[in-house]
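Write out the bound-state structure for NDP.
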Amino acid sequence: MSKIALITGATSGIGEACAHTFAQQGYQLILLARREDRLTKIAHHLADKYEIEIKQVLADVRDKKSLSAALETLPADWKKVDVLVNNAGLSQGLDPIDQGNTDDWDTMIDTNVKGLLYITKIVSNWMIPNQSGHIINIGSIAGKEVYPNGNVYCATKHAVDALSKAMRIDLLPYGIKVTEINPGMVETEFSVVRFKGDEDRAKKVYENLEPLIADDIADAIWYVVSRPKHVNINDMLIMPTVQATATIINRKNG
Ligand code: NDP
Ligand code: 8X3
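---
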């Protein structure tokens, strides 16, 4: 059987780009997300184009019980996962702490931190008997710095940063690699989700600048995954050339 990659948040942006890249490299894919129509469309397209096998897992990473049930129904052969891309994540709102929406906070913490933990526990237990595997956590520049009104989103990505370091220590005895990929601005559905469907506000985020695209991140992930067995890239911070820090951006026309 070919190598297997499990990608969370595969229906859009970075996760979808990773699905294309791994499919092109001949991996069998387990694609996980909540939107069934999109998941099915992407899975069928990639299976036909690259003649690979794909399992779809329709699940919400926040729902511990149904997530576990959905993953456990995979056939034993499919649990020999070589690469886990912990990508599912989101930001909700951009407000100062005193005005933040506590439901948004719950959503971000439950998805970006707890969801990543639930998946990691299940899949690392599948990797341990094989004494190999590679876990890629999608962090962010927001996990390296904080910026005005980013508060809880930044905290979740700082948690991903800490957990990546912790996982690397805990999984070391089993030969499992852990890499954290930290992008700056990538134009995906991220800002539309952050601003709850306000497409005009989302577009302004990327106005007068050249952001990263999802393929740039998939390309970096493939670089990391394709290193020799004795090499691990611990951490990668990838920014658009026009972005020096989370907030210092060289926009055309000011
Ligand atoms: P998108 O909104 O384009 O994609 C997010 C993906 O996550 C979707 O496939 C969505 O699928 C999935 N997802 C969200 N919530 C859940 C959930 N509860 N359960 C399962 N899947 C879920 O954004 P990006 O591609 O930009 O984001 C991917 C990752 O990259 C995130 O972790 C984000 O924080 C991070 N990141 C993004 C940056 C950017 O500028 N875009 C920069 C740095 C990091 P569905 O809705 O179908 O479930
Ligand atoms: C997403 C990038 O700068 O909006 O993680 O936090 S940013």
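---
The chain has a mean pLDDT of 98.
DSSP finds eight helices and nine strands in the chain.
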